[in-house]
Write a structure and sequence with these properties.
single chain, 71 residues, mainly alpha, 48% helix, 6% strand
């Protein structure tokens, strides 16, 4: 899985909120029970962990080099 984030590290909560907004939602992460119903329990478990994602693999594999963070 490749991530297209221009910042060094983005929390999974912020990533979920951005995905919700991009899909026409209000830009918020849903509580675990709701997320488990929508995306499946295993993926919801992974997103519920206190973790961050980076674009290191994306930058290396496709030569992507963002110049500014996106709002």
């Amino acid at each position: 899985m490749l991530h297209g984030v221009s910042e060094e590290a983005v929390s999974t909560v912020a990533l979920a909120a951005a995905a919700d907004q991009a899909a026409g939602g209000q830009g918020r992460a849903h509580p675990w029970p709701t997320a488990a119903e929508v995306v499946g329990e295993q993926f919801a478990d992974a997103l519920a962990l206190d973790q961050t994602v980076t674009s290191t693999a994306t930058r290396k594999s496709v030569g992507w080099n963002p110049t500014t963070p996106q709002p």
